[in-house]
Amino acid sequence: MYKNSIFNYIIDLKDEIRLYNSIKGKNSLLIATGSDYIKVKEILCKKNYNYDSAVLKKLYDKGFIINENVNEHLIREQVLNDVINNNKLHLVIMPTEQCNFRCVYCYENHIKGKMSLETQDAIVKYVRNNIKNYTGLNIGWFGGEPLEALDVIRNLSNEFIKICKIARKPFKAGMTTNGYNLTKEVFEELHRLHVYEYQISIDGLKASHDSQRKLVDGSGTFDRIIYNIKEIKRISKLIKTEIVIRTNFTKRIINEIDDYVKFYDDLLKNDDRFSLQVNMAGDWGGEEVKSISHDLLNVSDYIKLFNNLINIPNGINFNFHLQELTSGEFKCYAAKKNSYTIGSDGKIYKCTEAFDMPENNLGYISKNGEMIIDYYKESCWTSISRILNIEKCLTCKYSGCCLYSPCPKNSLQNTNKEPICPRTKGNVANLIKILSSECFEKI
Known about the structure:
Structural class: alpha/beta
Largest sheet: 10 strands, mixed
CATH superfamily of the largest domain: Aldolase class I
Shape: globular
CATH class of the largest domain: Alpha Beta
Number of strands: 16
Radius of gyration: 23 Å
């Protein structure tokens, strides 16, 4: 006999029904219309498992219906174990901790400069000596602003390419950049260096963006970033890349949401390499963010924002948010055993925020390429036993995706010692509604 999975989401849009199962992730997304719409409701809502064999089989294959004796709590624990113990080496490298921007919500102090040749050599030695232990290498270029130290990226990337070619291991990289220095020529060079993924922030229209994301001298950055994006957009779509445009929404940007959606649509329509990340500007530390504290959103505002976007006709690609519906992919890199952040001075962290947090300072990389780290501190981020069996998670249908909170930093800083639920938990229905129908398999 069968039963419904505890991880099911059933979104009834009257003329169609959209289905999602958090433990199966984005591959579970189904859509049913017409007579199949009625059959799905009969099976899942009324639990009539003898209703229609073809539709029943599809729902079973996608995990919406499971055998009666299956313990899904054990499945969730196994998925968590697999995610944390992923055997790909992931290094977030800060080639410089300086930045040409002074964003109002930035938490970094920009004291440290460019990575020395000595530290670069140490990282290369570490990768060369240890790549045999991993299935591949994934680099995230971070900062500061990483493109303020393009020579460091160039040097390290060329070495990583050689090492992985000899070891016959895949290598790819991504970059979080403000986009100011990302000219067409730089973009093409980075592609040759295996940088295939980008995150660039555009915070609303020109006036709003320039008030939040300005240069060190206080001047605006919007026009230069938009020019660079237009130049990149002209490059052949055959160049494989994924560019996430992150918008850190404030109340001011929400007030111009219709005009911003139209601007974004006109800028990037018909190019599926670009997707929009709807984020909310937050107080991530520092003093300047206090000047816009009245303008920051809360979780309720964030959910209302998605409601607004659903009701605005547009062709925007929201596929970035599929990761929030993908089991394990939403889990922060800091929670994974084979993931480290290396500062420009060779210090080793787990998280790219809270650099002064004691648990986040694991150690350093030595001249001979060894990671000298505090394994107790590391276990605070990666220990499975620390986070299992949290009572409020056991019956939560989103827990198949977030796996007991995606952000270990929040959990460590929470004095209640319980994971803090991600804001996505209350926004799953909106995400499912806003996704293109092309993301769903039709029953």
